[in-house]
């Protein structure tokens, strides 16, 4: 899906897509909406129905346990504020054979996370929409099921309502016109991805290269990512974590790749 449509959905439904910029270790939403633009209206309509239900869930559960550590909300620093912080709970290790307080340990949670339903992945699979949530109610899942079923009749590229699925190859839900011109549509997508890579790639390189080194070669990431959406997600992730880049003096001596323009064992990009 185009970045501008992605951004429009995230801004309009902040509760549902609250994990859009979260790291890939916690959600697949970091990759954005992995489907064609033709399903935008379908996803928008579904999102507009889910957002008020999520708000109702929050209103009905003001003291819900943290979605990260499952501790009570009251155990988090500043729990009455709009953004409670680190969990202050102390737990007992059930597997420890030591006596208190040696078997105590502090909660790992760095901040309270609301356990309300959030989108964890939105994509195309086997020609249909797949809309996954972290949790939900029967009403929410019924709405999702209806939207997923409706996607099989809507062209993924142009939103035409007379779409069908192919019998062989990668299953796509396309109208007759888009199916006949799909090679051109795919070529256009790859061109967009390449242009975005050339434009944004240097920004990524500048963030993760050593501070005392500058890259002279372009950083092409289309070899590793499949679409413009993937590239945009990668760029955003790099921007958010750029301050954690490993500098030259922190490279371990056994790092065997950091003398070339490749991702080295220690996660940085460098050049001797």
Helices and strands in order, then pairings?
Blueprint: H1 3-12, E1 33-34, H2 40-60, E2 90-92, E3 104-106, E4 119-125, E5 128-133, H3 138-150, E6 164-165, E7 173-174, H4 176-180, H5 182-208, H6 228-241
Parallel strand pairs: 1-4
Antiparallel strand pairs: 2-3, 4-5, 6-7
Helix pairs in contact: 2-3, 5-6
Describe, in plain words, how this protein is organized in 3D.
With 272 residues, the chain is an alpha+beta fold. The chain has three domains: 3-61 and 116-151; 67-113, no CATH class; 185-250, no CATH class. The protein is 33% helix and 9% strand. The protein has six helices and seven strands, in the order H-E-H-E-E-E-E-H-E-E-H-H-H. It has helices spanning 3-12, 40-60, 138-150, 176-180, 182-208, 228-241, and strands spanning 33-34, 90-92, 104-106, 119-125, 128-133, 164-165, 173-174. Strands 1-4-5 form a three-stranded mixed sheet. Strands 2-3 form a two-stranded antiparallel sheet. Helix 2 (40-60) packs antiparallel against helix 3 (138-150).
